[in-house]
Specification:
It contains nine helices and ten strands. By secondary structure, the chain is an alpha+beta fold. Bound molecules: zinc ion (2 copies).
């Protein structure tokens, strides 16, 4: 990975240099969950998948409630700077994420339909060792080993934990090179989608992390997956609005959605990616594989 989180000493050094675009933007947890839940509820209006968008909004609100009730205390983190300091596969995680899971399940339970209630019950009955095993499989991107309905809840708890960890490391970063930029420089996870910003970072593209919710800068007109740049195409379902487009790459036959804040400042990576699932169907019909991950749509488990 090629964006480095800077140590205190490196930050002092960096300040001597001219202003640069921040390579990584860190989320404000409370603000993020409030915006996402509201966006999901807005998008649910007259949407064919309204029920699922509203379920996702409930999960996001349960993350926010858990954050406020049981915030993460100061953690001993082995590396707070360098490359992927909070690597999802190697970081020794605190079991507190399982408390988050229980709280999220508790919040969702009264609103759950029959099928979901069965999923919740099975997670509540799972041992700590079973939960840790499923968590490790998800974080290692072995999505075929965990049922997708359980994955949503497990990921919601893990993401809440990782998001809070990002608040405990230095928030300065530097672009080292543009190789292997598909993975989050903070935790090493795949992106949800890319966002074209407005405001101080006008026109710049940032990829949004599916786990720790950080965003990292990547130049446009470059495939986020393979760095290719000569076989890129943009697709959308509604050319007039084109708030959300899919950027396909003919070299690696993958795509990632790109969202434009200038078309609607309320656009939100996870919510808008989920609500635009029909664009995924179109892209898959054209033979492109999704390179991103939405925390509410996990690939199916192997039978
Ligand atoms: Zn991340
Ligand atoms: Zn590519």
């Amino acid at each position: 990975m090629s964006i480095k989180i800077l140590s205190e000493a490196e930050i002092k050094e960096q300040k001597k240099n001219a202003y640069e675009t921040p390579a990584v933007l860190f989320a404000n947890p409370k603000n993020l969950y409030q915006r996402r839940a509201k966006r999901l509820r807005d998008l649910a209006q007259d949407h064919p998948l309204a029920d699922y968008l509203l379920f996702a909004a409930d999960v996001v609100e349960s993350q926010l409630a858990t954050l406020e009730k049981n915030p993460l205390s100061k953690q001993e983190i082995e590396n707070t700077s360098g490359i992927e300091p909070l690597n999802a596969k190697t970081l020794k995680r605190n079991g507190i994420w399982r408390e988050y899971l229980i709280e999220i399940l508790h919040e969702i339970k009264p609103k759950a339909n029959e099928q979901m209630a069965a999923t919740i019950e099975s997670l509540e009955k799972a041992s700590s060792a079973e939960l840790e095993e499923m968590a490790s499989q998800l974080l290692a991107e072995e999505f075929n080993l965990v049922s997708s309905d359980k994955a949503v809840f497990l990921w919601a708890a893990l993401s809440l934990y990782w998001l809070q960890l990002t608040q405990q490391i230095p928030h300065a970063s530097r672009l080292e090179n543009t190789e292997n930029i598909h993975y989050c420089p903070v935790c090493g996870s795949v992106p949800v989608a890319s966002m074209i910003h407005i405001g101080t970072s006008q026109g710049l593209r940032y990829l949004h992390c599916s786990l720790c919710e950080s965003e990292w800068n990547l130049v446009r007109a470059q495939c986020t997956n393979c760095n290719g740049h000569d076989k890129l195409e943009m697709w959308s379902l509604n050319e007039e609005l084109a708030l959300i487009r899919a950027e396909t790459c003919g070299s690696c036959e993958s795509y990632l959605k790109m969202m434009f804040q200038e078309k609607d400042p309320n656009v939100e990576a996870v919510a808008d990616d989920l609500a635009s699932i029909f664009l995924d169907v179109e892209m898959e019909e054209k033979g492109f594989a999704r390179s991103g991950l939405n925390p509410f749509i996990f690939p199916a488990q192997d039978a």
